[in-house]
Request: fold
Amino acid sequence: MQKMLTIISNVLRGSARRNAASLVVASRSYADFTPEATFDIKKVDLHRLEEGPPLTATLTREEGLKYYRTMQTIRRMELKADQLYKQKIIRGFCHLYDGQEACAVGIEGGITLSDHLITAYRAHGYTLTRGGTVREIMAELTGRRGGIAKGKGGSMHMYTKNFYGGNGIVGAQVPLGAGVALACKYLGNDQLCVSLYGDGAANQGQIFETYNMSSLWKLPIIFICENNQYAMGTSVERSAASTEYYKRGDYIPGIRVDGMDVLCVREATKFAAAHCRSGKGPILMELQTYRYHGHSMSDPGVSYRTREEIQEVRSKSDPISMLKDRMLSNNMASIEELKEIDIAVRKEIEDAAQFATTDPEPPLDDLCSHIFANDQPFEVRGATPWTKLTSTS
Amino acid sequence: MHFLVANEILYCIEDYCIKAFCKLRTSRSSLTEDRSKMASIRCFLRSGKSAVSVVLRREFSKTSPAAVQVNVRDALNQAMDEELERDEKVFLLGEEVAQYDGAYKVSRGLWKKYGDKRIIDTPITEMGFAGIAVGAAFAGLRPICEFMTWNFSMQAIDQVINSAAKTYYMSAGAQPVPIVFRGPNGSSAGVAAQHSQCFAAWYGHCPGLKVVSPWNSEDARGLLKAAIRDNNPVVFLENELMYGVPFDLSEEVMHKDFVLPIGKAKVERQGTHITLVSHSRCVGFCLDAAAVLAKEGVECEVVNLRTIRPLDVETIEASVMKTGHLVTVEGGWPQYGVGAEICARIMEGPAFNYLDAPAVRVTGVDIPMPYAKILEDHSVPQIKDIIFTVKKVLNM
Reply:
């Protein structure tokens, strides 16, 4: 009987594959999937630590599907943004995150939404993992009133609860993150702040000032350096006397992690979060990752690195492929199921793009609003003394 | 140096001839002519020779033999190239200036030509490399320190003001600081609040700094060369949206020793009814507005400041004494801005008595720069704002 069922299900699956994937109704019950599996993950490099995160990670089926879906959403959203930028529907600066998805998703897997996070301008992925929707992110990129910042901020200035952007000035977000951490300690709420920066920003003086104060005052902050090897057009070798970014905190313990593996990132983040919450003060994580696009949409990304290098990373270390292979080879999901997720994601992105291109621009009444908080409305000088505009909070 | 003087003499002679020619041709209202004559006499009595030369030296757009079309980016590039070649002590440092050819391609080809020693890529550490640049200037080199945009100079502003601007004074003349800080300033397109600020007023506020704001390719070329040759710290405010705009440059301008005097404004368009004073990209808007207004019989005189500090008050005053009306136009915020300074100086000087109406400023809107296109368009002065203001001032 069992054999019969298997044959029938195989036939059904086979025909489904020839036709649209949507024909597939799970011909296999959930009982057939492995509910959870444990994977070996790369050992991290340690600095001023006796022990690091565990060498294995347990992934449940639900987690796997969730991470897959989120990473795929970020990937597709960024590629859509690329398209819209080339059509000039998105303007100004646009820094894309494809290739680095495992970082955003892995970090969120190691903390909770009541923790805090701040990053630099390559922020679309984090806006999503921190609670933003694709619709409001895309509408912000196209500068519409439905955008997450009502169209006033743009790509680099998106905010959600416990997510402080999106910051345009390199390095400035790091002391800001320490300030958030200070507030967490001050309020005694057992929350922490994840403060992200890139390999380019790692040389900024204000980061070292922040290391010092965070350590002195034992702030619950996780410094995370997303090392994607290039600061705009300058490779790490050309900009840093020491490229061991996880050691640059000197007296701050550090770990260097494979940022292309979502499980590595998650386990490292859990480890770091435990360190912070135990009152030991800051800890530094270097995530070794890679961006497929250039620095921004105005950078083709191939004048300072080779296409072969990009291709190599794509084929050998892609974070989404890595997770997919793990789940499939451990029978944690079926190909069809993942394809369904792909289709659903694609639809979500299309709908969001549709919204983002049809939603109207912000009203002119909004031009001067949001200068001060909790204030009476006041007059704002326009381009001429006769142009009287009003600002509301 | 001699070229500068020769240049000025040439301008004077040319100007005088054209002025004399015009007098024969144009029919201006006698009131305006009288005013103009009065202005000259008063100027002459007030400050003698320099005033006369100011009145005589009111240049306007010439159609000299155009040698070549050069956009602002290439004008800057060529200026730097020539100065690097002329003086070994000149070098360029900044983010992406070398191997990337410059974030906006202004330093394209320079690293290939001059190498690592003279074209230096820095890490993203403005406070640090600005300090290093100033130190190099202390020791006798002539650095060009590029900020990718002037917004990032805020990270380094202490070095610009406290280390560069004030040192010659504090050392009672013992320590000059021959440095040029340059980069794009002001609003661009869609780059939002943290990348769109104008710093003309901020730096223009500080004694010890020269602050230059070119508009076209001739300005860019002549003023950058002058800045590099100047033994003082110069803040050189470029404009990203002007980089790609081409202008005709005469053979004379293309000469490798062509420099423009820092601290001298240029009258880009002669007019009789109202003076428009502006700097950088807004000069172009003023000229566009003037063309529209000319059709309605209003002749605007457009003054291109070229330099924010030291401010060429004399040229502005002479123009206001001729036209009796003043509008300043700038991209920056109104409060404590360039226009505010100009209005204050006019109030305090002889030109005040010639004003037939209060001087008015056209400025950027007093808000952080929004991202959405419709909002951004309404955050900066538009040509229609200039036209509207002119008509209001002239009571039309």
